């Protein structure tokens, strides 16, 4: 791993998940991670976009809880089975991360329609297309047309979902749920143990779907261990997450 910066706290900003909360990240920039180094970071609650690695360090709040699915024990729920049937005609493929103009067009359209934001190719390349570690691209096609794309990192123990975009015209298909189901299946096919799904945030409705992938494990900031969970837990005790004590990075 090439470590460009050591972890530093970002400036406080409005929290995108919980109203009236303040968001602070611990963040650093790195490149050329191998699978083992990425596992070390994911197993301690770190996430990434492009070369930026981060995890929450919000004063007085520990609501963001890392979630992962042990893929050998995962079983779809009834509603997830319905999504699988609804999307049975979708062609899914997995391969190395690469650039194609339809991928950027899909990313741009998704961002504009869903969030009212217009992004440049530089935004796309910096956050998704420029990997700093082993990466995987998942493609979802309906009748030969690209309607979804998932960007994942591959560690020594699992796949980690970085971002998923889809064509808003096919919202009826629930491609977001479908992509998680297919990426869990791909994780198992590769012989890996865990599918990392980012942060669960109790009280944030748009994050609640993550708890539906069961069984799953939750990372507790207090004891720095993963625990089995069948539902959204109570948030850990308040206080700043101790991010810097003993920081050495992967061996």
Would you kindly provide a brief summary of this structure?
The chain is α+β, with helices and mostly antiparallel strands and 251 residues long.
Can you describe this structure?
It is globular and about 45 Å long. About 2% of the residues have low confidence. The strands form three sheets. An eight-stranded mixed sheet has the order 9-10-11-12-13-8-14-15. Strands 1, 2, 5, 6 and 7 form a five-stranded antiparallel sheet that branches. Strands 3-4 form a two-stranded antiparallel ribbon. The chain is built from five helices and 15 strands. 22% of the residues lie in helices and 31% in strands. The chain is of the alpha+beta class and 251 residues long.
The largest beta-sheet arranges its strands as: 9-10-11-12-13-8-14-15
Major beta-sheet overview: 8 strands, mixed
The overall pLDDT, averaged over residues, is: 89
Proportion of residues in helical segments? 10-25%
How many runs of DSSP E, i.e. beta strands?
15
Count of separate DSSP helical elements = 5
Order of helices and strands: EEEEEHEEEHEHHEEEHEEE
- Gross morphology is globular
| Residue fraction in strands | 25-35%
Structure class: alpha+beta
Q: What is the C-alpha radius of gyration, as a whole number of Å?
A: 18 Å
Low-confidence stretches: 242-247
């Amino acid at each position: 791993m090439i470590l460009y910066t050591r972890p530093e706290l970002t400036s406080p900003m409005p929290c995108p998940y919980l109203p009236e909360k303040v968001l602070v990240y611990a963040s650093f920039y790195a490149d050329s991670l191998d699978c083992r180094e990425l596992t070390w970071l994911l197993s301690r609650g770190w996430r990434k976009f492009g070369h930026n690695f981060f995890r929450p360090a919000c004063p007085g709040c520990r609501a963001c809880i890392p979630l992962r699915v042990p893929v050998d024990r995962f079983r779809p729920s009834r509603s997830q089975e319905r999504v699988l049937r609804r999307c049975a005609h979708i062609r899914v493929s997995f391969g190395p991360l690469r650039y194609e103009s339809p991928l950027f067009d899909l990313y741009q359209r998704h961002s504009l329609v869903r969030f009212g934001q217009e992004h440049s190719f530089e935004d796309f390349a910096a956050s998704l297309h420029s990997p700093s570690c082993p990466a995987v691209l998942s493609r979802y096609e309906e009748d030969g047309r690209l309607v979804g794309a998932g960007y994942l990192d591959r560690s020594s123990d699992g796949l980690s979902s970085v971002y998923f975009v889809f064509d808003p015209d096919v919202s009826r298909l629930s491609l977001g749920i479908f992509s998680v189901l297919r990426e869990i299946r791909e994780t198992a096919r590769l012989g890996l143990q865990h599918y990392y799904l980012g942060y669960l945030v109790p009280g944030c409705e748009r994050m609640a779907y993550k708890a539906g992938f069961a069984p799953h494990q939750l990372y507790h900031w207090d004891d720095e261990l993963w625990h089995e969970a069948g539902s959204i837990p109570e948030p850990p005790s308040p206080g700043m997450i101790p991010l810097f004590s003993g920081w050495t990075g992967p061996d």
